Amino acid sequence: MTVTLITGANKGIGFETAKQLLELGHTVYIGARDAERGEKAAAALGSRFVRLDVTDDASVSEALATIDAAEGRLDVLVNNAGILGAGGVDGPTALRVFDTNVVGIVRVTEAALPLLRKSSNPTVVTLSSSMGSFWAVTNPDRPEFNLPLALYAASKSAATMLTVQYAKSEPGVKFNALEPGTTATDMTAAFGVGRPAVESAKTVVRLATLDADGPTGTFTDEFGHLSW
User: Fold this and answer.
1) Given 47, 119, 129, 155, which residue is catalytic?
2) pLDDT single digits (tens) 62-79
């Protein structure tokens, strides 16, 4: 049985990814900072729940300790939690965006690594974004060119770089970053764009179910390699 943890999974892409991985036979833990919403989502899915706030070290440690006590290992980690940080650009907003979208990845990954190293096929999938691609945001033919999301874009550049660096430092674990596709979620509601989360979740599932000899250190979308 493959043991999987998905952060920020009480709704959106994380929720749909959990649903699809459960259908494939995974034991799925959905992490959410709001216990009531997380427990409700877990009950709807038939998954397991751990309270996990990626901005809180104690919360992260407790969540991974719970999984360790119950399972003894972790096979798949999906770093899904993230915020947009739209609106004004200022110090407090920047700290909040980077604490969630970047430092949160470090907190969860570092806490998860001891459990991932016990797996026979450890895999980490980080939801990044083409908004973090220098190539995309400087290309007038790309939709990212006209989106004024400075803090989100910068944080996603960092998320992709973390993926590459982790792939180098942890050769026994597959680390891959993903642009899941423009998705209609609470985060993108103000833009009125995106496809159903169930479709984007399929791209996450692809990377979460790689064989032991699968790629690592990549940044892709559903069409393959994504320049950045």
Assistant:
1) 129
2) 999 999 999 999 999 999
pLDDT tens-digit readout, 23-46: 999 999 999 999 999 999 999 999
CATH for the stretch 3-225: 3.40.50.720
Cβ contact 122:115 at 8 Å:
no
Which residue did the predictor score with more confidence, 197 or 150? Answer: 150
CA 62 to chain centre: 19
CA distance 80 to 195: 17
Catalytic site includes residue 59: no
Is 156 designated active site? yes
> By the 8 A CB rule, do 226 and 179 touch?
yes
Q: Which of 128, 156, 157, 200 is catalytic?
A: 156
